[in-house]
Amino acid sequence: MTTAHLTCPLCEATCGLEVTLDANQRVTRVQGDEQDVFSKGYICPKGASLGALHHDPDRLTAPLLKRDGEFVEVSWQEAYDEIARRLPPIIEEHGRDAVAVYAGNPGVHNIALTLYGRVLYKALGTKNFYSATSVDQLPKHYSSGTMFGDPLAIPVPDLDRTRHLLILGANPLVSNGSLMTAPDIRGRLRGIRDRGGKIVVVDPRRTRTAQFADEHHAIRPGTDALLLFALVNVLFAEDLVAPGRLAEHLNGLDDVRELAQPFTPEAVAPRTGIDAAEIRRLARELAEAENAVVYGRIGTTTQAFGTIASWLVDVLNVLTGHLDAPGGAMFPLAACQPTGNRRPFAVARWRSRVRGLPEVVGELPVATLADEIETPGEGQVRALITVSGNPCLSTPNAGRLAAALDSLDFMISVDVYLNETSRHADVILPGPSPLERPHFDLAFYQLSIRNVANWTPATLPSAVPQEWETMLRLTGIVAGQGPEADVTALDDFVAGETARRNGLDVAVAGERTGPARLVDLLLRAGPYDVTLADLEAAPHGMDFGPLQPRIPEILCTASGRIELAPEPVVADVPRLREELAKTAETGLVLIGRRHLSSNNSWMHNLAPLVRGGNRCTIQVHPADATRLGLTDGGLASVTSRAGKLQVPVEVTDEIRPGVVSIPHGWGHDVDGSRARVARANPGVNSNLVADETLLDVPSGTSVLNGIPVEVTPV
């Protein structure tokens, strides 16, 4: 028996795991690492399934090439030869924008794809870059970029010191935190209560987090921005605005006061479904709390006013003096977070060809990918590279996108599964399992509620090439070096550029290669006196302490101040103001939901996570079920402008009347995939009825919460 300690790469919580292997290198046990400096032994069902993922017989370990409509295993050289034969001619004839990229969520949990994916994307030089971000958190990047100057400067709740937590559209007891890296959320929320604090949840469903909270307010989906503006209105009207030391770093305070005037509690109450008196009380308690923080997540970002809602979350934290203050919303200082100069944030540097949707943080909204494939003309997308992504399940009007993929001239998928999306590819390139590659949470330490870091070396050797090598082989092909590109030379070039940008001599990293060398360079350029060798000597992680105030040094707006009323966001306020004149909606709207043992679409082929009853149901309030003739356990037909599906009914008073809920990431019953457990537990693809024409205007993020639908019994 051997034991390895590693950081779980399956969600944002970054929990430490202790993995036991037998003499045949099979995983016999996965448990929490009690010595981990951050998680201290906590583990969730996803982390416990790491062995099942490693040993999954459906996980690909050799490239697949489509011949006469069927996939066959081929050598790596054959796969690269096919790519070199077919991809460069498309670029040469139709231009670089004829190739699109879709990067999926798992890539952010993979240090090789995080660091070397960007090398490939830059070499491609295409404007048609898409990712899961535009069906998730893009509005938060947009609002942070316009307010603080950096789309990655996202303040997170200082959970371990707060005494008042207002949560909107988030269910951290199930998601394990999101844009808030925090293992053992239940224990940390319990800590708020132990300090005499209070937890308030605003959500259309009585989620697991809402059940745990002191208060739950069942808001009408898509109206969070109205509620948040009403809270701002009360703060100004009752002279409760107290930004404290932030006052000297603010622009736009009077502008926000004026913008908030129409959004009185009485004006928004009919639309939100929350009583005006309750709104006033929520605002007063937030302002009067000694340590308080407002936190909004996917329910606030994937709605029609996602950018305004994301902005107002931080406006409230500023107005109450709880931004950049202990117990409030604070900016992490990650170990791999170079402190050099940054350029002020800019948006809409280019727009999509067909619908004119804006670029944000270098990507276009995935809601328009099908348009770009289907619409003839200069710049039409003719080839697609997907990197650990499954947009045929995770993006709106998924049926239309799946049909569009079949019209491509060429498609490559970098993926460990033959799934609902990669089945459309001509070439599939797999990667090693999480146990066969090193790991460092580059993205999530920048969202952590405590400044920590941990490096995980590969636990087991891999017969599959590391994904950083795959990315560089593809880079060589698109850069004109052919399938025999010198990976070592390309890696040396990437490392040299990383060192140069950070004012270092690449030689300080010694003989390291790949992600290890880049992480060592980034650590050396970071804010702490630490190297990769230090992390290697600390297998349970290093703790750099609680979050500290970082304003003004974190700000990189043109003014060097917090832009409380940034022009690109303010320009969208009139659209929200129009909502005040509308009567309360009476039709049904659809929202999504999460489960603790599920992570979007990519954990459903693991038997330990999908066993038990069918969780892919449509939740309906008893009053709506009676009115519509729906019965618990029966089938319902759900129809929207985009499509139609059938799903089992679950009647429950946990959901607000007028709202129905279906979990996302399911729908594993399509032909051509190779995932036996998932196909035996297929569920339904809720994105078949998600409407790709419904967007948050500033960011182009898809509306996945508050979709108008009709529901009838089958």
Give a quick summary of the entry.
The protein is 31% helix and 16% strand. It is α/β, with parallel strands linked by helices.
The chain-level structural class is alpha/beta
Largest sheet: 7 strands, mixed
Low-confidence stretches: none
Q: What is the CATH topology classification name of the domain at 146-325 and 558-576?
A: Dimethylsulfoxide Reductase, domain 2
Rg of Cα set: 25 Å
Helical percentage: 25-40%
- Proportion of residues in extended strands: 15-25%
Report the CATH architecture of the domain at 146-325 and 558-576.
3-Layer(aba) Sandwich
How far apart, in Å, are the first and last alpha carbons?
54 Å
Global geometry? globular
Report the total helices: 26
For the record, what is the CATH homologous superfamily label of the domain at 146-325 and 558-576?
A: Dimethylsulfoxide Reductase, domain 2
Name of the level-1 CATH class of the domain at 146-325 and 558-576 = Alpha Beta
What spatial order of strands do you see in the largest sheet? 5-4-17-16-15-6-7
Kindly report the average pLDDT value. 96
Total count of strands: 26
